[in-house]
Amino acid sequence: MKIKNICCIGAGYVGGPTMAVIALKCPEIKITVVDANKDKINKWNSSNLDDIPVFEPGLKEIISKTRNKNLFFSKDIDKAIEDAEIIFMAVNTPTKEEGEGAGMATDLKYIESCAKDIARVSKGNKIVVEKSTLPVRTAEKIKEILSLSKNNCKFEVISNPEFLAEGTAINDLFKSDRVLIGGEQSQSGKNAVKKLVEIYKRWIPEHKILTVNVWSAELSKLASNAMLAQRISSINSLSALCEATGAEIDEVSSAVGRDHRIGSYFLKVSPGFGGSCFQKDILNLVYLSKFYGLHEVAEYWHQVIKINDYQRLRIVEKIVLFINKNKLSKEVSILGWSFKKDTNDSRESSSIYVAYELLKLDFKISVYDPKVNPERIIEDIKNLNNKRKKLNPNIIETNINICSNLNYIKKPKNIAVIMTEWEEFKNLENLGDKIFLLDFRNFIDKEKTTIRF
Ligand code: UDX
Ligand code: ADP
Questions:
Q1: Section 321-341 average pLDDT
Q2: Is 267 in the pocket of ligand 1 (CB under 6 A)?
Q3: What sign for the dihedral angle of Cα 389, 391, 396, 402?
Q4: For the chain, what is the mean pLDDT?
Q5: DSSP 64-104
Q6: Atom number of ligand 1 nearest to Cα 164
Q7: How far apart are CA 4 and CA 216, in angstroms?
Q8: CA 217 / ligand 2 centre spacing (Å)
């Protein structure tokens, strides 16, 4: 039987773009994306496509082709679950803030509440797909919750982790390196996997679709993110050594990356990696390793996070040293708030951590980002302060000035710090020599940059 109805719970950075692409590629399947946040659903339905909640190159074009044809954004979660044969769970899975495993383990409360909704509402058999990154063996927990369903429905839980990177999500979804589908080895498990394979086969060559067991799929996602992040921490740690020795990190990175066994991707020096996945997934890996008594393994991966924190603090130190050396006032313009270019997502962005440290040192900061909205920027600092409590809440709004364009930074003696590699920051060499440009992304041609990290 062919799949006719899909529901996706979670209309965020994963659910939105992923379902848009499936809708585009499978016009005969009706896809309903639901979210507990009603305001978000309103935004996805906005007639102005610039107002949809996720900024992602190429996304609005797909939404304009599919929305209200076979792609629907709805507030009626129960109905969407009831009608669907396949339900994707694409809800957020942040790091736990309290209770056992706080600061390390993944908070499964959103996943659990999703599973409870599915158990409560379902009247027929369904395939439940884990799309969010989850700790290994979460499928077991989900099955347990689903088994509480009163209508005698059968559920197959399969893991299909998402590998898209924000900023390039649409391209990643069109041309995935691989699609990973983990299912149980039983006949019904295999049938469920086959149904998902049929969907992806519409545009992904079959040899790129890997079918594995559920636990391997769950762990592969954590492992992929951990290994990508590990490369960044490796190069960032070497940047400190380059500065001490006079070597050039870009030259080292390029030389190392030429070895085809290593490859050149994810070797770009940066102010530390951000985004909703890397830190959370590594902390999760650390927690899991400890749970299984593998303390050396836990310590090994934890180091990747420690270097990331160290890189952020090093940047703050460099800014402070620079200001002291040049006898400048404690004012800095931060260019870029998103955790990378081409997204409006700022989760775990290094800009938040650097700005927070500077505010602690009584700096006044101005921030400009082409896509992140001003309320989000203030919210990010407030959220961090709720955890760290090192800032007087009153100074947050008074000491941050959010700018709507780059004009503000064009003041003589201003220090502008490039934190995100947005294209529009590439032309800043024309600012003149009265402005100090600190390029912590090392992405401007070094000849043209006033000051380099
Ligand atoms: C990541 C994974 O790449 C993706 O496969 C997974 O599904 C989700 O997590 P994402 O976090 O969206 O994707 O973006 P990514 O391109 O991986 O960048 C993460 C962070 O690493 C960014 O802050 C980026 O600036 C930084 N980075 C990346 C570097 O500092 N140096 C690099 O060389 C590459
Ligand atoms: P991701 O990057 O993983 O997509 P987001 O935070 O962008 O994370 O999106 C996750 C979405 O899931 C949010 O919009 C949130 O409101 C939604 N969500 C979380 N829990 C539930 C739930 N139980 N039911 C419906 N939606 C949920």
A1: 94
A2: yes
A3: negative
A4: 93
A5: HHHBTTTEEEES-HHHHHHH-SEEEE-----B--SSTTTTT
A6: 7
A7: 29
A8: 21
Joined tokens for residue 420 = 């995100």
d(CA 100, CA 330): 41
The radius of gyration computed from the CA coordinates of the chain, to the nearest angstrom, equals: 23
403 belongs to the catalytic site = no
Phi and psi torsions of 72, nearest 5°: -130, 140
Which tens digit of pLDDT belongs to each residue from 250-263?
999 999 999 999 99
Per-residue pLDDT of 178-189, as tens digits, reads 999 999 999 999
Among protein residues, the one with the nearest Cα to ligand 2's atom 8 is 92
Dihedral sign for Cα 381, 383, 385, 391, please.
Answer: positive
- Crossing angle of the two packed helices 138-146 and 109-121, in degrees rounded to 10: 30
> Which has more confidence, 414 or 168?
168
Cβ(10) – ligand 2 distance below 6 Å: yes
- Nearest in space to 339 (alpha carbons), one of 267, 265, 432, 277: 277
CA triplet 294, 299, 304: central angle to 5 degrees?
135
Q: CA-CA distance, 83 to 190, in Å (whole number)?
A: 22
CA distance 283 to 293: 15
- Who's near 59: CB < 8 A, 6+ residues apart? 16, 17, 20, 52, 169, 170
Residues 240, 253: Cα–Cα separation, whole Å: 13
Q: Identity (one letter) of the amino acid at 36?
A: A
- CB of residue 7 inside a 6 A radius of ligand 2: no
Task: Name the residue among 16, 47, 10, 9 with its Cα closest to residue 344.
Answer: 16
Atom of ligand 1 nearest to the CA of 421: 25
Estimate the crossing angle of helix 295-325 against helix 350-360, to 10 degrees.
Answer: 50
Q: Mutation test of ligand 1: which of 277, 283, 309 has the most ligand atoms closer than 8 Å to its C-beta?
A: 277
Token pair 């700096």 is found at 363
Residues shown for the chain: 453
Q: Is the CB of 9 under 6 A from ligand 2?
A: yes
- Indicate if ligand 2 lies below 6 Å from the C-beta of 92: yes
* Ligand 1 center–CA 232 separation, angstroms: 9
- Contact status, residue 41 vs residue 75, Cβ threshold 8 Å: yes
Is residue 113 within 8 Å of residue 38, measured between CB atoms? no
